[in-house]
Amino acid sequence: MKTRRCFSLLILVLTASALAQGSIQIPPGSSSVIDAGTILFDSNRDGNWEIYRMNADGSNQTRLTDYPGVDYSPSGAPDGSLIAFSRRLTGGDQLHIMHADGQEPQAVAAMGGQFVWSPDGSRLAFGSFIDGNAEICVVNTDGSGFLRLTDNTCGDFEPTWLPDGDHIGWASGLSGNADIYVMRADGTGVVRLTDDPSLEAYPNWSPDGSRIVFCSDRSGAWEIYAMDADGGNVVQLTHTDRFNGAPRWSPDGTQIVFQSDRDGDSEIYVMNADGSNVRQLTDNDADDAHPCWLPSS
């Protein structure tokens, strides 16, 4: 099993470590915004993990960061002007924010993980290891206002905002098994959506809030599924018997981008919302992972 796949699985099921909070001003102003249909991802194709972008058809693959360590898990702001990502340093991971063209990356807070922007662009949700447990937290985009939402002895990981901005979905081991849950953005009102003896991870709500895409090993391999917002009407979207994960809806809700090792290493793919018309976007001997859409401004 390749190192990248191990790293991807760890992030899918545990979240990256996070340290004490701090704050630095985010990049002021706004730079040029990438055209609509842009996908962000991380890759080790140049020898170390960096953040890249490409068009939705896989063309114009461009490296955005140039750091000798590890840059991973990009997330585009709702207005498409900024990108949040994690940078791995000797003393721990840091939240960084840069313009959508890769300019002016700045450290914002001493915490790391897979950050997800709130719909209004004011906060970021992420997983953090606190007291030895993976917990769900939120922080303002300037690094202030750190708030821990979960406090469990099990693992809580992979948060995602619902389109209403008032709720957060995530995967948790509360039941003794990894299932999909939803709660209010203040940590109250927890509701369990899946109840399956398999593992479920990486939920992501469609832009209209009606469907949830997620990954599960219920078939014996990590495949991608979709279900209604109440947990019903589960449909399997991929059928490869290989690792498929990190699914994200396109801003218009018609496509899903994801990563898969179906060709022997981790590559980025996109498919229609019903699982049809699968297209491979990257194709190299390195690993490409953690895709997400950068909304247009």
User: What is the terminal-to-terminal distance?
Assistant: 40 Å
Structural shape: globular
Low-confidence stretches: 1-36
Strand order in the largest sheet: 3-2-1-24
Say how many strands there are: 24
Strand content: 35-45%
CATH topology: Neuraminidase
Main sheet makeup: 4 strands, antiparallel
Can you tell me the number of structural domains?
A: 1
CATH-defined superfamily: TolB, C-terminal domain
Percent of residues in helices? under 10%
* CATH class category label: Mainly Beta
Mean pLDDT, all residues: 87
**If you compute it from the alpha carbons, what radius of gyration comes out, rounded to the nearest whole angstrom?**
17 Å
Class from helix and strand fractions: mainly beta
Please give the CATH architecture. Answer: 6 Propeller
Number of helices: 1
Topology:
Layout: H1 3-13, E1 38-43, E2 50-55, E3 62-63, E4 70-76, E5 82-89, E6 92-99, E7 106-109, E8 116-117, E9 123-130, E10 133-140, E11 147-148, E12 156-161, E13 167-172, E14 179-184, E15 191-192, E16 200-205, E17 211-216, E18 223-228, E19 235-236, E20 244-249, E21 255-260, E22 267-272, E23 279-280, E24 288-294
Antiparallel strand pairs: 1-2, 1-24, 2-3, 4-5, 5-6, 6-7, 8-9, 9-10, 10-11, 12-13, 13-14, 14-15, 16-17, 17-18, 18-19, 20-21, 21-22, 22-23
